[in-house]
Specification:
About 45% of the residues lie in helices and about 15% in strands. The chain is of the alpha+beta class.
Amino acid sequence: MNKNRKNKNERARYKIFYIVMGLIFCIITVRLIYLQIFLVDEYREISNNNNNMNVSVPAARGDIVDRNGNILATSVQSYTLEFTETTESKADFYPTMKKVFDILNEKNISMVDDFPIVIRDGKLEFSFQATDEESRRWIEQRFKKDRGFDEVIARNKFGKEVKMSELTSAEKKLIDELLLKVTAEEVYRKLEEDYGITQYYECTLEEERRLIVIKDSLKMQSFSGFDQVIIANNLDQETAFIFQQLQANLPGISVGNKPMRYYPEKDLGSAFLGYISAIDPWNEELYEELGYDANTDEVGKSGIEAAYESQLKGSKGQQRIQINKAGRRVAVLGEVEAYAGNVVQLNIDMDIQRVAEKALDDTLEQVRAQRGKDTENATRGAVVVLKNTGEVLAIASRPGYDPNIFTTPGMLTPEISKEYFSPDLEQKGREYIESRGLANKAGLLTITEVNSLSYDERVEVLLNRMFPIDERIEGNTTIREDVYDIFPKPFYNYATQSLVPPGSTFKPVTVLAGFEEGVIDPYTTIYDNGKYNKRYPDYNGACWIWHKGGSHQWVNAARALEVSCNYFMYEVADRLFAKSSSDFNTLDFLAHYAWNLGLGVERGSDIKPTTGIEITENFGQVYNYESSKDTLSNAYVNRLVELLGNGISTRNSAQYYTPFNIAKVPEIGSGDELEQKKLTNSKKKALVDEIKEEMKRDVISSEKENVDKFTSLITEVIKSDASIENIGYTEDDIWNISYVIYEEISSARSEISSAANAYNASIGQGMNYFTPLQLASYISTLVNNGTRYEVKLVDKIIDGETGEIIQDITPQIISQAQFNESNIAAVKEGMQDVTTGENGTTNGTFNGFPIPNGGKTGTANVVDEKIQYGIGRNAAGLYVGFAPFDNPEIIVCSLLFDSDGDRGTIARATFEEYFRETILQMDPSYKFMYDFHGTGTEKEEEKTE
């Protein structure tokens, strides 16, 4: 009974449950019918009018200012023209863009355009912003991969079902090579098809390309979740107002604001400022991990912009916005504020920087105007101005560039881009050779070639020697390299990166070493006999005046510096060599003093090979015994490649054995062919490595031991490849090859251990190579009695919002040498005589300059003197100077390529600017070389303009 009642109760509850559920579903159904039928128009309108999306708010990049707060780089708010892709804007894309382009053309406003396919002379070509060929190839491959061309190649090559992740490394490498063969025309036409570019209106190729630029940007942006691109970012107010007025008729188009990088002084300071640009493809993952958007963000690429990227970039904001069906913003739902980057204040003095650059430009122009010399190529130079405590007051490098070209659309034209990043060296090389008549000159051409070859043949030979095909690029047959640095490179900082022999600017080191080691004193006199063959009869070193038929006669150290006497320096070097029984270690006497002054670093030292500057630099090394082993062994191996390749020796110029190639072959191809080349190269490397090691040994093995050893290694190379073995090398061939190697090892050892290296080093030639920045630092250390400071561009970091100092940067002491103060004083006196002495090499330049100072001129051959004339180059002129004489505050180094001399004009101009107030107090009517202040008298040339 109880059981039946219980069942009835349960059935009643289920009925109630089903009734309730039925009512609920009825209500839901009725509500859905009401919403979807009766209110459909209302909700469709709401849906069409409002879409939510997140947009990034760019932060203003921090300012870069000079020591006085003058702005060198800043961010300015710019009107931007933006396109947002929605259903409606996509449908009206072509007519909308037609109207947009018409307005931009009328107002002469350029689009944001990083698309690397450009139109040049009516043809489609690639234009990638890369200063070296390896980077250019990488960017090209990445560009094509991002647009799916690697997958297309993979399907065509390995089948439609292939997956990229399943390919072998060899197959991927093959695809990379095939990608480079896809032409700009082929890429363009495929993208034209992929993006559905339809000519709804008649347009030119240029206009069609604009459409592809926008479509391509949208596609790349979509990977980051955005359907919005900036069409132009430099609208003036009037144009911005026009677009705002027309927004109702331009679906997807809106006007916004974005901070744009701006350099108010244009190319002033480009050597240290650097520039910003899009993120390089190979760095995308790195920057994305740091919160950057690789598709839209720009980063510092060089100089301070790159070195202080983390301080300058600021913090991006975020907005949650509503957009309507036409893609325009109608409301901001929420916002995270963007914060500007920090201010980087430099030690640079803008006034000194301006004078240094103007003086450098004028001096180079005067050099080019000379007649009777190969000075037409004097387009490069550098100036470094330091305080004696390490602060950089100015750095100039020529040629320079305007960093605005990377931030202002339209400035970096296809023509400028090609000239900067991918010049046609074949065409430019031919023009250079023919315009300078180099095909009629011996040097790089031999006398026999000049007399026996036709003009066209001589041009071709020169072209292939001066601008050879770049063999570092696998399979390359067209891209050439500028091995003699004929054409100037705007993005190469000649002040911090060009390594050149210091010439006679090194002589103060030689004199100081002689004083400190006691082989001379300030009163020691040496007679200038002209040619220095005291120890080595065949040594060709001589004093410059001897070549003119004269002699400096009896000279002491001060006069030797004043007149730049080579003979005196040779004798000092020889006395240092003889001091410890001519042991190899005595070849490092000069090096020890140069190292203490910052000219190189001793092997094994805890001191880093750097001046301490924040931007990219090279750091040169002074001649020393161990380093010379590397330098000379490499040089002799290079000579061996030529000798063995011709079947000759240095003693027998006629072929007397079968030529033998020890140079590596390009490792291209695949499968067995590639493995064969790798095997042969490994055997050649073993041979070359052993040759170098033998050259570096203080005591070389006997003739028999050498010949036997190299006979075995040569045989291994021959047997590694059937094609080499089939040449048919005889035992006599192999023995002769081995003997030529032994001869070169003996010659190398003889040169490595010769004191002649120290003679060359004593006058700043030979194996001494330094940057202008190093030379300025060395003079600073010298006049500071051995205290060497870091070189610093940046003075402090300042909070961009509050103005508070975040970091105060003071140059630290790198090293402290212990020099006798009287010896330093004696060297300085000789350098003062350079500027004021009767026979001083710059006394004419500094005549009438009221601030006592010191300096030293120098001339250096940046390429082999024997071929210099034959390639249209000239020696480089250097100058180092300091002022005031008693308590030096400022140091200057200037470098003029292809000038054959620098008489301190640039140094005087910068000294005048630094001491301007002091000079005007001394002489209110003083005539300054340059006057950008409106006081004093302007330079005479500027008066007459």
